[in-house]
Specification:
Elements lengths: L4 H8 L7 H25 L8 H15 L7 H4 E3 L2 H7 L4 E2 H9 L3 E3 L3 H5 L6 E2 L4 H9 L13 H12 L3 H8 L17 H15 L7 E5 L5 H10 L2 E6 L2 H9 L9 E5 L11 E7 L10 H11 E14 L5 H14 L9 H10 L2 E8 L1 H18 L9 H20 L2 E10 L24 H4 L8
Parallel strand pairs: 2-4, 5-6, 5-8, 6-7, 8-9
Antiparallel strand pairs: 1-3, 9-11, 10-11
Helix pairs in contact: 1-2, 2-3, 11-12, 15-18, 17-18
Length: 465
């Protein structure tokens, strides 16, 4: 059921029943069932006054555990309290990650140094047990309600996209920079800038799709249209970008000179409403599929198959958490799910994506892990944000600005740690008549040049030292 996507995702992140994802499911669902069953039993035993006791007992035991977290002797090195209540409650003790987020957004604490620098030492002042706001958020995912981000009907999806992406183009430009690309770049050289690294990524996508002049290309979830414009300019394609963001479409049309002249176009529509009669030689979907959700993933892939020519190529880039996620991974994932990308429930380990692609009748050609490049990308975004945030402070709430500092800094570390990674996946329809000799072009040297080893050399970049 769509309403249980968070439960399903927690299971996908687990290897064993005792892994954090499964323990969250067991703890929350088990507590609800125990409370209800115990309350009903007491009520039937004519002890109506005692019916709430099972619930209160479970909550009380967890509050004791929650209240007495591990001591944090180095806490004052990294954070200061601006609220006496928060200091009384958490002074000298490790603060649950979700609680730290709430305190920071509410301006009850401040970091004593650069946020990224402080979070590099997060284990000194943070613990990863779920706090009450997290538990409330997860319970809300179990049934249809306004706080449930697991619902993936068209109306809910449109609202979620508008809430995030229609915030203001100036807001996103403040950290994405000139290219306005909200996905991982690829750093091939030590002197790559964010802009050149994004160009590297777009070139690789076009090469993986084997684009040639005159090809019709579809980019599902096109953001601000940069890939659409790049493919049109450098590979002479006729490209259509699809987005649910009105602000993104407006930017796309204004910044792509060929728009509306037959060479590129942008549609504000749900992927499910792309006309079935439209056929494309190449389809890309760059870090959009996570928002489709688990239950709708086959619907999404079948839509891709319907619109893809039989000899065409499909490129999908996805970011997901790792299998066997520990509590630190889960804490970051819950933060992202609650505050940044509420509906991105299909942020799974790689094996699930491959299973889904094959189940839909798509044959995987190549897979590349660019997670470490995502860390470099996020770091560049963080530096941009810290430089440009003062110019936005009069227009956007302080809590939102603080949230973005936390998001970009924490995500820089998470992707470097392996908490989440990013996959470049290329595939085509699983048909006997498909000319697989075309795949040779994509399966030589990783960067397309004989003898080059840029992916290995990347580890020598200054950014990694």
């Amino acid at each position: 059921m769509p309403a249980n996507e968070k439960v399903a995702l927690a299971m996908l992140l687990s290897r064993n029943w005792s892994d954090p994802g499964n323990m969250l499911n067991i703890g929350i669902i088990g507590s609800i069932v125990t409370s209800i069953a115990g309350g009903v039993a007491l009520y039937k035993a004519d002890k109506k006054w005692a019916a709430p006791l099972p619930l209160f007992g479970i909550m009380g035991l967890y509050e004791i555990k929650h209240r007495f977290t591990e001591k944090a002797p180095l806490q004052s090195k990294y954070i200061s309290f601006k609220s006496k209540g928060a200091e009384k409650r958490w002074g000298g003790r490790k603060i649950p990650a979700a609680t730290l987020t709430t305190l920071y957004l509410d301006d009850e604490i401040e970091f004593n140094m650069d946020v990224l620098e402080a979070l590099e030492n997060i284990d000194d002042f943070v613990c990863y047990m779920p706090s009450w706001p997290t538990i409330k958020f997860l319970i809300n995912q179990l049934y249809p309600n306004s706080g449930n981000s697991s619902l993936k009907d068209k109306k809910t999806t449109k609202r979620e996209i508008a809430d995030h992406y229609d915030r203001g183009n100036d807001f996103f430009n403040a950290f994405l920079g000139e290219r306005m690309v909200y996905t991982s770049a690829v750093f091939e050289n030590d002197d790559d800038t964010l802009e050149s690294a994004q160009d590297n990524k777009m070139r690789k996508i076009c090469e993986k799709l084997r684009l040639k002049p005159g090809d019709k290309m579809l980019d599902i979830g096109c953001g601000w249209g940069t890939l659409v414009g790049y493919a049109n300019k450098h590979f002479q394609t006729k490209t259509t970008g699809v987005t649910l963001s009105k602000e993104g479409a407006k930017w796309s049309r204004e910044h792509n000179p060929g728009c509306g002249q037959g060479s590129c176009d942008f549609l504000v529509t749900d992927y499910r409403d792309i006309p079935e009669t439209e056929k494309f030689n190449a389809i890309s979907s760059v870090e959009m599929a996570e928002h489709v959700g688990l239950a709708n993933f086959q619907t999404y892939l079948n839509k891709v198959k319907t619109n893809l020519e039989d000899d065409g190529a499909f490129y999908i880039q996805v970011a997901g958490l790792r299998k066997g996620s520990d509590w630190k991974d889960i804490a970051w994932g819950l933060f992202m799910g609650e505050y940044i990308f509420p509906g991105a429930d299909a942020s799974t380990p790689l094996n699930w994506y491959i299973l889904q692609l094959e189940q839909a009748g798509l044959e995987v050609e190549s897979i590349e892990n660019v997670g470490i490049h995502y860390s470099l990308t996020l770091h560049e975004w963080y530096k941009n944000w810290m430089k440009n945030e003062p110019s936005l402070s009069s227009k956007y709430p302080g809590s939102l600005c603080r949230l973005w500092r936390l998001f970009l800094a924490w995500s820089t570390i998470a992707s470097r740690r392996g908490t989440a990674t990013c996959w470049m996946i290329c595939c085509h329809k699983q048909l006997d008549q498909f000319d697989r000799s075309k795949m040779i072009k994509n399966q030589g040297s990783m960067c397309g040049k004989p003898g080059s080893n840029k992916w290995t050399d990347a580890a020598k970049f200054q950014q990694f030292k």
